[in-house]
# Entry
Amino acid sequence: MHRTIIEPFKIKMVEPLSFLTREQRENLLIEAGYNLFLLKSKHVTFDFLTDSGTTAMSSAQWAAMMIADETYAGSKSFEKFQNVVNEVMGFPYVIPTHQGRASERVFFGHLVKKGNKVPSNNHFDTTRANIEYLGAEAVDLVIDEGKDPKNTFPFKGNIDLKKLEDFCRTHQTQIPFGMITITNNTGGGQPVSLENIKACANIYHKYNIPFIIDACRFAENSMLIKQRETNQNHKSVADIARETFADADGCLMSAKKDAMSNIGGFIALKTNNWLQSLKNLLILTEGFPTYGGLAARDLEAMAVGLKEVLDESYLEYRIAVSRYMVEKLNALGIPTVLPAGGHAVYIDAKSFLPHIPSHQFPGQALAVELYRREGIRTCEIGSVMFDNAAMELVRLAFPRRVYTQSHFDYIIEGLGDLVPEKAQLRGFKMVYKPEALRHFTARFEPL
# Structure
């Protein structure tokens, strides 16, 4: 076994990195109200804000885009895309949208009513916001291990089955559908076991509740099942993915993650029960059902990406990068969510900066410092993003096929200087916040 992680691809195009001085970055932080979402990309050296839409697409994807059928209705590109979704996930009915939150808006807009309750392991930010916007409650039922960054249980994204059973029994008439998110982004990018997914489906169906998977990182979840779950390592990732969706009634997907695309999303369904109503909503807000707010070239890129993402050499590399970064950060004395997940590394800011209380946003303080020192843009997942957050995390989400091991080694070298000076960091107060999804546009002042 070679110990060096190599990228399982060749680089055919390059883009220069931006290197600013620390003083320049400090001035830019002030202008942005210390909100990293409000920085310009030209001022960022390493952009780990999100892995959504930031993929470096392959030569096969770019080639497919050149033969797209840009017909308004009935495009051949849509047929190709629909067939691939059916092949990979087993869902025959597919509705494209321009991204994941559009899928949520259309799907929830039809099914969610005021007073409803929608359970999941953890709902991420836009999912929760879209449910709450309609006057319903987004309910998190992740296992207790998933709330403890130091716990090394291999499937910390699992839903608590006892809590789910009790919840469904008590609130059956208020639940329009139940969900699970794979991988569990809010909880540190942690996977959900195949056993848990199937047990979750059985409980939902026992109470006649449709089961919908938030599937944006389904391939990474499938690879982690192959690596960690008993009696699964002999299966291909493609087979595990099909089995993941076998007991679900449908899925919502941001194609900007594991469809390896820069834009796009979709709703996929097992039956056509809701199909016409969802299409009618789609036409109202997104576009005709065979393009859904996308260009046909985007459908072509997604169709190729959904198959490329199942390449096990790519997935092994992807997960190895996260594991490598977790090990290196921990060795420096920087605590992270354990075990390493797939798409990101989550620094445990609460443990790293115990002198900063939650109401002073330790995750935001650390995220700001990472940019100030190294030009790294990250995302706080804690008390800024969520009220009553269980953990105070800083997510370094790695764009697919973008950075190399030397980039990660460079970052590790820089972060080593932060550890002995961490006690100097101070918290923040929020001086502006919108009503929903405040982390995108909130502004802060240092304390």
